[in-house]
Amino acid sequence: MKIQEILQAKAQQKVITITCNASVSQAVAEMVAANVGSVLVTIDGVIEGIFTERDALRLWRTKEKVQDEAVLKYMTQELVIVTPDDTAEHALSVMNQKNFRHLLVVDQHKLLNVLSIKDLVKAYIGNLQSSIQYMDKVLI
Question: Which CATH architecture has domain 3-139?
Fold first, then answer.
């Protein structure tokens, strides 16, 4: 299964971005409002990092009062990219190797969307259900 197929199911979901000067609490509020696990962090309109629910949990564990500090200080700077022509298996492998749950999907230097582990699981479940239905029809 290609990532392009998975993105078709996400067509309605837009990518959430915030500026690097936004606070940690603003980043978390944006994620909660959009029901997503990450926001992309921009500097002068260019994506420079990603702030995820994992980043927020790490901060919460430190018990430091960081909610008003700039998200730039706590974002993940390593952006891992896949293309629409990559397979879901490749994306899962990259996520596993890097210990990330979100990948940027880029085609010809244009950001298409953010692919999450949840998106991949949904796609696999859908494929399994289709396979089971097909086998039921063939075998019965």
Answer: Roll (3.10)
